[in-house]
Amino acid sequence: MRKILILCLLLVLAAAAWPVYVGVQVETALREARTGQLGDFRFHHSVVDYDRENYRARATTLLHVVGYRTDFELYLDHRIRHRLLGAVVDTRIASRQDPADLPPHWGAALAQAEPRADSWLGLGGGVSSRLSTRSVQLAWNDADLGNRGGRLLEVGAGQGGLSLSSERLVLSFDTETLRLYSGDASLLLDEFHYGLLLHPGPEGLYGRLPDYDLGLGAGRLSLQRDGREQFGAESLQMSAWQNSTLRQLDSLLRLRAKEVRGGDLELEGLDLHLSALRWHRPTVLGFIQAWEGMASMQLDPQARTGLVLGMVLDGLQQMIADDPRMLGGISVNSDPDKRLRVHLDLGLQGDAERIATRPLEVLDLALDVEVGRGLFEELDTLAGAPEVLQTWLELGITDGWIEVRDSELSSRVRMDEGRLRINDSDQTILLLALVFALGQGMF
Predict the structure, then answer these.
(1) Measured distance CA(330)–CA(328) in Å, rounded
(2) pLDDT tens, 277-307?
(3) What CA dihedral angle connects 429, 434, 439 and 443, to 10 degrees?
(4) 255: how many CB neighbours lie within 10 A of its CB?
(5) Contact 79, 61 (CB under 8 A)
(6) What angle do CA 419, 424, 430 make, to 5 degrees?
(7) Is 294 helix (H, G, I), strand (E, B) or coil?
(8) How far, in whole angstroms, is CA 343 from its chain's centroid?
(9) CA-to-CA distance for 223 and 124, rounded, in angstroms?
(10) Measured between alpha carbons, how far is 397 from 362 in angstroms, rounded to an integer?
(11) pLDDT of 1-54, one tens digit each?
């Protein structure tokens, strides 16, 4: 019996002392300055003050954000409670934060939002947080709008989450309303939601071209001007993902909507997808860097076109060994008279030498288009110059580019070994004329 009492006493002492040990571990982890990068933004987090007791602690940390014309410091206050397997942290904007130290309008927005995070720090590392904000209404003037007025941003009360570890970053945010007014134009989003799962890239950093899964959507979207809707959508959903190695990159984008409106045109059941497979990752990174450098240079249009064409050809020579391919498709409406179906399969075949000497021969293209006559007539009416589309339709039917079957217009485009075929008719001469026209006399 005595041994049991001693064992129980030891367990009680261990349970009482363990949160103290947890507090030491949490303080050690928080005091370690951390620097990370997400896209073009660099984050540095460090501790300013730390006051630890046995079962609780208080801390103030500094988050420094730099990137894309942004450079500011944000102070955060943390109340920490030590538990057996980790610590509970309540985080708010620090009372010492001076709104004047933040970018314009950020101070006012943070004061209204009163953001709060309830987090869990495990002993194994990583953090998981629940985020909440109050509604925000922010107005400012913009010199670009002149006499048309300023801008107004309204964001409803929101909630979300943040989970961060060395293996992944998860970020989400939901709000009932998000509205932006700019002059006589406005963008309205109801039931807005955002979710991002991010993995470090092959280099181990959250830098450019990381692996990710993205979800973005709204129950209703409406773009208006002078109080009249120019574009609208119901149950709009966008998803995208990217997966890569040091050499290859695969990505996918998909857009769906229950209904899409544009002027007098209404479409239902929109489903659009586009994917890029086996792209050469170092080439894509190099192209991004070269494009940014070229954007800062003062170049005349012809020189810019030449540089872009040169970069594209060099990039294709690097990519072709991996058999890169782009797949895409659009599906709209279920009524055959108003249906639209598009399927795209575009790839490269051959080798780098073939691209340099006979670039058209490396293209492998399959494009199928089906349009209901009723939808074509609606587009004809909305174009503002119906005689142009009607003339184009008659010409396409005469030349065999467009086939008519009942209420459907269709075209099949194939390109292989440098030959272009439209509905099984050889149109290679048309292809060559188009290439020379786009080249603006460079060939």
Answers:
(1) 7
(2) 999 998 888 888 887 777 667 777 777 777 7
(3) 10
(4) 19
(5) no
(6) 45
(7) helix
(8) 23
(9) 47
(10) 29
(11) 655 665 555 555 555 566 777 778 888 878 888 887 776 788 888 999 999 888
